[in-house]
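Support case: user asked for a sample of complex input and structure output to validate their parser. Sending the pair below.
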Amino acid sequence: MTLKVVPASQFSLDELTEAYNQTRMDYIVPMPMTAARLREYIEAYDIDLDHSCAVLDSEEPDLIYGIGMLGVRDDRTWITRMGVLPYARRLGTGSKIMSWLIEHTRMIGVSQLWLEVIQGNEPAKRLFEKCGFKLTRELIVSRRPPGQKMAKEPTLAIVDVKPLKFEAMLNYLAHRKDRPNWLNETETFYNLKKLSGFLMKLNDGSEGWVIYEPSAMQLKRVLVEVLSGEEARVTEAILYWVHQKLPILDAVSENIPIYDQRWIGYEAAGYFDSFHRLEMVKDMRHG
Ligand SMILES: CC(C)(COP(=O)(O)OP(=O)(O)OC[C@H]1O[C@@H](n2cnc3c(N)ncnc32)[C@H](O)[C@@H]1OP(=O)(O)O)[C@@H](O)C(=O)NCCC(=O)NCCS
């Protein structure tokens, strides 16, 4: 077969969703998509479909063998949604997708190309290492089921809560101490339509904020930043406050680095570790 790589923008969202789901049939963590969810994903993470690609067999142009998408932000790009049909693997399709996305990153002219791979996905990790990606951090994807009880009351209490307007939330997000992963970058929150955020003071004088994306069933992207005070205890108290207010909602927080002290606070507030991702980067200034 002769494989050719074309821009993903040649296909409808329905076709891309179908292709994505087919390539992920046997995936390590099942994450099926609908066209509506893919549209939200594209908007939230600044995916550029002209710089994303699909691989076709020239003799069977309706069948997508593999896809890969590219997020584009200021000085960096990000590879996501990449996959090859299970029966078409080990034939060089994944490498062709990577070459296209790396080449397009070069054309755009940014200095770094990022991605994440689920821990334990050795085929993908090897492919990325072969393409020059280096491991940066291990990240935790966590969840808190609805109605989860806290093991004990937090040692700190919230004494003042101020709701944040959208502009203030973006300002706080832009001034975080640590570099967030692509999913949690300020640009993502800028792209979201609905956000809630609160600035809080605690009884020992410490301060922090929480920002999340609420929906009918779930709080997504639950992010805490500690402005002053002890990371774990302040995080725990803030999350305790959130989940007392909204006890019946499921909650998800993605891509907290494993060494981050705030994770201890998330765990104390009833979050559990679902799986890990490895964050990797390719420096585009040096080959
Ligand atoms: C990862 C994936 C895209 C690779 O696609 P592919 O078409 O099989 O890749 P290629 O044939 O171009 O292989 C390129 C290199 O990847 C690595 N690789 C691919 N499959 C591998 C496997 N099963 N075991 C070990 N290494 C593997 C090898 O280094 C290989 O080079 P080699 O053949 O010279 O040894 C494919 O396995 C896939 O779609 N997996 C499910 C979805 C997924 O994991 N996506 C990535 C999410 S981050």
